[in-house]
Design a protein that fits this description.
Blueprint (H helix, E strand, L loop, with lengths): L1 H7 L2 H18 L2 H18 L7 E6 L1 H7 L6 H13 L4 E4 L10 H22 L5 H24 L2 H12 L2 E11 L7 H11 L7 E7 L3 H6 L2 E4 L9 E2 L1 E3 L1 E4 L2 E4 L1 H9 L19 E3 L2 E3 L6 E3 L10 E3 H5 L12 E6 L7 E3 L5 E2 L1 H14 L9 H18 L6 H26 L6 H25 L5 H14 L3 H8 L7 H16 L3 H11 L8 H14 L23 E2 L2 E9 L4 E7 L4 E7 L7 H19 L9 E7 L2 E7 L3 E3 L12 H20 L2 E2 L8 E4 L4 E3 L6 E2 L19 H4 L6 H17 L9 H10 L5 H4 L5 H10 L11 H16 L1
Length: 845
């Protein structure tokens, strides 16, 4: 039983069964599938409908006409009047879509006939009387004969059929309808095989064939005067809609044309009566009549291409007989006359749920025949559709489920779109009807069904190890949380030959590589090899072993500081979610890398915290302070402060992800030979002061303002960087005994290890400003102690004495920034920025 279930779960077997089933439903015209296919046909037909030029003009016997003339049926003299008018208008063809199978009602004529008979009898008796009053009798008989003559004239005038017959003869271009009583045709034994092929060829279009059993046509008097007669039977589909027209119908061994076909043939002056055989007109394309190729199917029907209602000019009957309709509208055209009032029988076409009169359907068929505007099933439709079904079946059997789920779904969507777009294009542009539903259903349903069955079979195979799925889920959960070793322990309990498990293991090994754990990545790859050859596992093992040999406990082969980049590793390393591209340099805190956030494809600068010089006892405290300071800096959002995006720790490495700047720091600008223009330096100092004011207002002190921490971008803007050692101002804590910062740019408070605030950063800014203007530092010393003493006690040399070109007010600002007494120094960066911008304005003036 288990083997049977596993066998049934094979993709090729399920795909074969589904393909055979679709072929069966396709050839059988199975009703549920046929309904869906017809729905796609109707939708395309609605899209294809357009306004076209047509020679057909419809004359409606509508509610307006009946209201004015009287209830239907009218005396046939009314129609004779219309035909006479149309003949006068030089209408090419008059199509009278009305069945006159019975003579006109003649109650009055019968009474007059009876009266005439009585008069003639009386006259006969009078002639036999020969008496003395012979002259009086003669006069009486003369009056009777005159009366009989007048009554006979009245009798003739009341014969409406004769009146209509005269109009038909005068016009000589009237086509009239007849109706067949139909019976379903049965295949003979010789035709059974041909019929089966026909059904396969027609696919979902399979329909019944009919022959005429009896006929109801116009009365003999009218039939003799009609130019042509055609049957006007409508053949609704299973849902009651009219989608096709029978062009020829077999009746008593002969084939008779339809009313629509007769009208079209009469328009080109080639009407036909009937034919014993179709051999002369049957072609591979359909029918060839009067030089016109008509794509009729084997059942002699034509698919109707419905046009917009406005394609056919329409006039009310009374508008024509009253002379309201223009004569030019009918000259050289086909006038199609029929009932369209609300009590008439209407049909539903495939354009919408609206109902349309017989004249509208006939008008469309006539237009299709004359203009060659056809919807057809080409002879190559069946092989193309069958080929598509077979191709999709093979795809499901041997390709779809060997791809990854994503690739399989992409191929599925692409194939569905390609087939349906082709079917839409051929239908809308060329009128070729290809089945959309059958191939699409096989592909879509087959993919889903096989996926479900495959999953059921896999579950059946794994019934003896119920924990496999839970182990896999736990492994994936551990992996997503960065607990790679625990994830590997769970994956090892899953079957390594399973393609899905091997893919997960492969991804796990890549994670080990990214975390610079090369030896563990090798172990995972070697475990994958137990299930057979897989991707580039063998090559990766060799590369990683070679790279691991060059790696020396936290150092790369170049020596130097600790790095996350390992030469020779085939995988891009990561810190958290960031990919590490290359090393940019070293800072006070550690190494700086160029990184990329793969989620939003953004490049970032990643700064790491270096641990190699930190004692083990202080390591936790330093890390905690690093994260607190990073959190404080991350809250700052100012155009002149480098933005911090993220902070985290990965495999023992604390890191800070921040905005990547294009430019350089101000270190080179402090060289006397490379000094920047004075106005530019003043503007940059004002921007830095504004940035510090913002930081101080938010409770953050930088503590290390110096040229390397001030970046000038390629567009000239400056940004203050490296708030990495900033601390949240907290009056409840002191920093006594802790010196943070770079000696030459420290404030006196920092030198004395006192508690500092934002004014300390302003002092450091003054030192940087002084150096950028003069190329010299305001405080110097031969040793560290001498430098510390100078900063704390020795007055600086005024900037104007170093560089006389410096304006007096700029020199005064520097002096106030470098005040050793906190109370005399600037209290906020905002004051500094305001004074500098005011001085800058004077310099411009």
């Amino acid at each position: 039983m288990n083997r049977l279930i596993i066998f049934i779960g094979k993709e090729w077997f399920l795909a074969l069964l589904l393909t055979l089933f679709i072929f069966f439903a396709y050839g059988k015209g199975w009703q549920p599938f046929k309904t869906f296919e017809i729905a796609t046909y109707d939708y395309r037909a609605r899209l294809r409908s357009a306004s076209v030029a047509s020679p057909v003009v419809i004359i409606d016997i509508d509610d307006k006409s009946i209201e004015e003339i009287g209830s239907w049926p009218w005396p046939r003299t009314r129609l004779a009047q219309l035909i006479d008018i149309l003949a006068e208008y030089k209408t090419s063809v008059i199509a009278l879509d009305l069945l006159f199978s019975m003579p006109s009602p003649d109650d009055a004529r019968r009474e007059i006939t009876s009266l005439i008979a009585d008069l003639k009898k009386d006259l006969k008796e009078k002639r036999k009387v020969l008496s003395k009053k012979k002259s009086k009798v003669a006069g009486s008989t003369s009056d009777t004969r005159e009366l009989i003559k007048k009554l006979e004239q009245i009798q003739a005038d009341l014969d409406f059929d004769i009146s209509l017959s005269r109009s038909l003869r005068t016009a000589n271009n009237v086509v009239m309808p007849m109706n067949f009583y139909l019976n379903e045709a049965e295949d003979t034994k010789e035709e059974i095989f041909s019929s089966l092929l026909s059904r396969l060829y027609q696919g979902s279009l399979k329909r019944k064939n009919y022959i005429g059993e009896n006929v109801k046509g116009p009365i003999k008097l009218l039939a003799k005067r009609a130019r042509a007669i055609g049957f006007n039977n409508r053949l609704p589909e299973f849902d009651g809609k009219i989608r096709r027209e029978a062009l020829l119908m077999q009746f008593k061994g002969s084939y008779y044309p339809s009313f629509s076909l007769q009208v079209a043939l009469t328009y080109i002056d080639r009407p036909i009566k009937s034919m014993k055989s179709l051999d002369k007109i049957r072609t591979q394309y359909g029918l060839k009549i009067a030089g016109m190729e008509i794509p009729a199917g084997k059942d002699l029907t034509l698919l109707t291409s419905y046009n917009k209602v406005g394609s056919f000019p329409r006039f009310s009957f009374v508008e024509v007989v009253n002379g309201i309709a223009p004569k030019e509208a009918f000259e050289g055209k086909i006038a199609l006359i029929g009932l369209s009032h609300k009590e008439n029988s209407f049909y539903t076409n495939n354009l919408s749920r609206k109902k349309y009169s017989s004249t509208f359907i006939t008008a469309n068929v006539i237009e299709n025949i004359l203009n060659g505007n056809h919807i057809l099933r080409p002879e190559w439709a069946f092989p193309v559709e069958a080929g598509a079904i077979l191709f999709f079946g093979l795809f499901l059997a041997f390709i779809a489920h060997r791809l990854s789920r994503r690739a399989g779904i992409i191929m599925l969507i692409f194939s569905l779109a390609a087939w349906n777009l082709l079917a839409f294009y051929l239908f809308l542009e060329h009128g070729y009807w290809l089945s959309m539903f059958y191939p699409s259903f096989l592909l879509l349903f087959g993919y889903i069904f096989i996926s479900i069955m495959k999953r059921l079979v896999i579950n059946k195979e794994m019934m003896d190890s119920e924990t496999v799925e839970s182990n896999k889920l736990l492994a994936l959960s551990f992996q997503s949380q960065g607990m790679l070793d625990m994830a590997f322990d769970k994956f090892k309990k899953c079957p390594v030959r399973d393609t899905v498990i091997r893919e997960h293991l492969y991804n796990l090994a890549l994670d080990f590589e990214r975390k610079r754990m090369l030896n563990k990545a090798v172990i995972v790859y070697e475990h994958i090899q137990k299930g057979g050859k897989y991707k580039d596992v063998k090559e990766r093992i060799a590369q990683l072993k070679e790279a691991d040999q060059r790696l020396v406990i936290g150092k790369n082969n170049k020596g130097g500081d600790e790095t996350v980049i390992i030469d020779g590793s085939p995988t891009i390393p990561t810190l958290g979610r960031y990919e590490v591209i290359k090393e940019l340099g070293h800072g006070a805190m550690g190494t700086v890398y160029l990184g990329k956030d793969p989620k939003i494809n953004r490049e970032v600068a990643i700064k790491t915290l270096r641990y190699d010089e930190i004692e083990e006892a202080q390591l936790k405290e330093i890390k905690d302070r690093f994260f607190r300071e990073a959190e404080a800096a991350g809250s700052l959002s100012h155009p002149n402060i480098v933005t911090i995006y993220d902070v985290g720790e990965d495999m023992g490495v604390a890191y800070l992800a921040m905005e990547l700047l294009e430019g350089k720091d101000l270190s080179d600008a402090c060289d006397k030979k490379k000094l920047l223009p004075m106005k530019k330096v003043v503007k940059m100092a004002a921007d830095v002061a504004d940035a510090l004011a913002y930081a101080h207002d938010n409770g953050v002190v930088h503590r290390d303002i110096k040229p390397p921490n001030i970046m000038i971008q390629s567009n000239g803007d400056v940004k203050v960087a490296d708030f990495g050692i900033a601390r949240v101002m907290d009056s409840s804590k002191t920093t006594t005994g802790v010196i943070l910062g770079t000696p030459s740019y420290m404030s006196p408070e920092q030198i004395s290890a006192k508690k500092v605030d934002g004014r300390s950063d302003l002092f450091s800014l003054g030192v940087v400003f002084y150096e950028l203007l003069t190329g010299e530092r305001p405080f110097k010393g031969d040793s560290f102690a001498a430098l510390m003493y100078a900063i704390a006690n020795t007055p600086h040399k005024p900037a104007r004495k170093v560089l006389p070109d410096i304006p007096a007010d700029i020199s005064s600002i520097i002096d106030k920034l470098l005040e050793k007494n906190l109370t005399k120094r600037y209290k906020s960066g905002k004051q500094v920025s305001t004074d500098l911008l005011a001085s800058l304005k004077k310099m411009k003036d």
